[in-house]
Structures are given as structure tokens and as C-alpha cells.
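Sample 3 of the quickstart, ligand EPZ:
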Amino acid sequence: MTSITVNGGRCLKGDIFIQGSKNAALPMLAATLLNRGVTKLYGCPKITDVSRMLDILKSLGCDVSWENGCIRVDTSGASGHFVSEACAGQMRSTVFMMGAMLGRFGEVFIPYPGGCTIGKRPIDIHLDALRQMNVALVEDREGIYGCTKQILGTVIDLRYPSVGATENIILAAVTANGKTVINHAAKEPEIIDLCLLLNKMGADIHGMGTETIVIYGVEVLHDAEFTVSGDRIAASTYLAAAAVTCGNVCIFNVWEREIKSVLQVLAQMGCGIVIQNKRVRVIGPQMTFAVDQIHTRPFPGFPTDMQSQMMACLTMANGTSEIYEHVFEDRFKIAGELNKMGADITVDHQKATIRGIGQLHGAAVSACDLRGGAALVIAGLMAEGETTINNAFYVKRGYQDICGDLKFLGARIEERKAQVV
Ligand code: EPZ
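Result:
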């Protein structure tokens, strides 16, 4: 098993280009199924979740290759409608293969989706929407089977602005018969990226990035090339690490508007922030201030995917901070691991209270999900001595090269592969 060791006490300094967005690349790879030819995606991150999505496409008969910095997907030979458990690999993003596969084949089977254990993660919103679009769905212990003679456009009122459900509906709607309106749609930047790709492929989508998205079904989509946007969560993670190491780091390839809510919190913590187009610099203070309350919300609110990392950052702030997690019901697991490093965090249902302490100390800790793992890396950068982070495979699901990136910025950090004896 891979682990990461960090020796704290270094200030992070430098400029760094941010990898492509995991949460944009995954639905875009699903979207390639809707074009019976070749789609090329530039800037996809080399992470395990992308590799797993490529395995799924290959298992369906697609010809997939990395070439000259892009992923080339030729779906002309695709025929399967069955996603195996082995391929699905407990990923959450398996679920929006449904919309793409129903649009392409009119039939789909997927195992129940997995993903980080940050809550129950039901898919009722997805299934309710697909049923409204003339899809017959049958669930059994193994997974979900769906089929339709023709997907029909309709008006869908989401009870919650689910990112994945919004993406699934869009993927099903682009070649549907008629017009689909999604009310209370998710507004995350990843939704905009997906729609821009689909429109480049010949789809007819309007209103992406707002809470009402309108999709006019078209007959077919065609070949296209597209560059995936920078990963706003990876960018926020590195800027937060700069904030708490008295650092001076400039990230590029992410728009300030995509990380505005995170920058607002970093400013409250006493950071200097300089913005120039797609370049954002954070200068960390000698001592960070506590933040009264942080509430995670759908975009443009504070992102739940930065909650664990911010919890780590606030462990040595001057004062007491509170974090309220409103998106997932079980996303404070990392508090226990941070407390092993000397943090003082108490959790009460959806509220975590972080009492700033003088100094974290290195320890052997374990990641329990992707962003929790990133939080432990940040804590290791802040701590005195050496921290070993086990289960580092979680981190590799979403960060292309967190060790290489942070080492480039001056951190003492190494990835270690366990010796197979
Ligand atoms: C996407 O997950 C992201 N994953 C998550 O990022 C991110 O945390 C989340 O959106 C919120 O921004 C990918 O894009 C691959 P949701 P998703 O549907 O689509 C409930 C990371 O670290 N819900 O917006 O699964 C759900 O339980 C990952 O990169 C239902 O109740 O998120 C949750 O409480 C973690 N029924 C809330 O909605 C449903 O049918 C938000 O879920 C669907 C969701």
C-alpha cells in the first residue's frame, strides 16, 4: 500500500500549474459515448478515477488511448450496455454512465455506484429523473438495469441541486426526443465544462451555470476536441497549504470566480490575495486567524470538497472556528486522525468545532477518503516532525501528483510504496 511521509516546517513558495479537473473530466469521458466517432479531451488529470473510467469505456468496446497530452476516445466500435463490478471499481461516477449509455444504446446495467464513504450517497434523484424521461428501471441486489425505446424530453424539478444527477439528466437529454428543462439544477463549474463540450459536439444546451438548464434534443453528435478546465479543488488545496505554512504561492489555470468562496475564508484567516486573470496568489500570515463559522453549500457556496482541508488549516489558528457540513452527512471522519496529531476538534452531528492550538506534531495517521487524505497532507506540512499518511491511494484518486507538486513548492514530502514481501 502507498503511504506519504511529510516533514513539516517548510514555507511553500512558487508558481504552479493546476491539473485538469477530476470532477469535470469524469462526466466528459462519459459524454464521449454520445458521439459515434472520435472525441479528444486535452488536460485530463492522470488519476486513478480517470483510469477506471477509461477501463469502463474499453469494456464497452471503445478504443481509448492517451496521445500527445490528450485522451482519444473512438466509440465507433462500442456495443456493450453492461458495466461490470470489476470495472466500476466502487466509483461514484459510474452512475452518470447511465445517462450516456441510455442515450447511446437505449439500455444500461450498472452496479450500485460507490465513491468516498462520506455519507449514504443515494441515487434516488438520478433514478426519479430518468423515469420521468421514459426510462424503465429495475433495481436488484447487483445493480440497476434501465431501458427505453426513446428518451423523451420533459420538465424535471430537482429536489436538491445534485451535481451528478444534473450531469446524468443532461447526458440523457442531449439526444432525447424533445426539450428537457432542469429546474434547481446544480451550478458547479464542472456542469458548465460538460455542457460546453457537448455543445461543441453538436448538442443544443442553454443556461448551464444557472439553476435552469434547457436542452433541445438533437439527432446525433459529432467529433470534437476540448480542453478540461483546471481543478478548482486541487487549486484551493494548494493555496490553503500556502496559507498555513507562511507561504507565497501562485496557482494558474483556474479562474478566481471558481474559488471565490475559498479565497474569502483565506482572507478572513489573514492571508494576502492577489488576482490576475487565471493566476491567483496567496500569501500566508505568520499566524492565521480563526474563522467563526464556515458552512458548506452547493456552488457558489463554500465547497464541501474543501471542508476537510480547511479543518486541518484551522487547527493552529488563533482562536476557535466552527465548520457546518450541509452537503454530506458523514464527512468529519478526518477529525479523529487530526486529533492524533494534537489537534483539538470536537464533532457534534453536522458541526465541527476546531480550537486552535500552538503546534501540531507528526504522527502515523490514515486517510479515509480523498479529501481527508489531502487534509492530512496539509496537517503534515504544518506539524513538527514527521507524519506518515497511510492509505494514500485515496489521495491519488483525485490529485495527479500531490507529492511532486508540493515538493516543487518546497515541501519535504515523499511517496513510499510498501515493500511487497
Ligand atoms: C459530486 O458528487 C462530486 N463527485 C463530489 O466530489 C462533490 O463532493 C459533490 O458532487 C458535491 O459537490 C464527482 O463529481 C465525481 P451530489 P455527487 O449528487 O454528484 C445527496 C470529491 O471529493 N443526493 O451533488 O455524488 C447526496 O447524498 C467528490 O471530488 C441524494 O440524496 O454529489 C449528498 O448528500 C466527493 N440523492 C448531496 O445530495 C441523489 O440521487 C450532494 O450530492 C443524489 C445526491
